[in-house]
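User:
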Amino acid sequence: MTTLAARALLAVVFWPSLFFFWFLGPFVFFLLSTTSSEVCARLETRVQFLAAANGAIPMLALQNLIYAVPIVCLVLWGRLAPDPARARHIVTCIKLFASAAVVGALWEYGSSLVCDGYGQPFFSTAWQMTSYLPIVSLAVNVPLYVLAFSLGRAFSTREDVAEDEASPPA
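Assistant: Predicted structure:
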């Protein structure tokens, strides 16, 4: 019975965190972590742009810690109900999450450096290329979301309900 309660508690944490952190969070954190256009107009030197971009690093670290909550839930579910096939999928989720975190951090940091075009003369064109990272991020996040959602559904569904759905009606 304690395993069922632990799985239910993880479901209560997993589903809201998946929705609020993964689906709504990127918009909120992007707005908070990048330098606003009002600040950009006042930045005149390379040092000022670097200071503004480096000021976003703590927010990026916090963002990735918060985004890890659904992954932690999947890992804990995997410990409560071990299954080799699901364990491989969880490892894939972790790899995709790490890739998405790196791509997202580079995109947001690069956006802070470029700062809506005002900082372009100060930095190399490599930082301007970060404007293409949302495409890479989408290519990584779509399979991550689908895999995490399907694993969450599999873990949060009771076994007796799953067995009833699998067997055809008599």
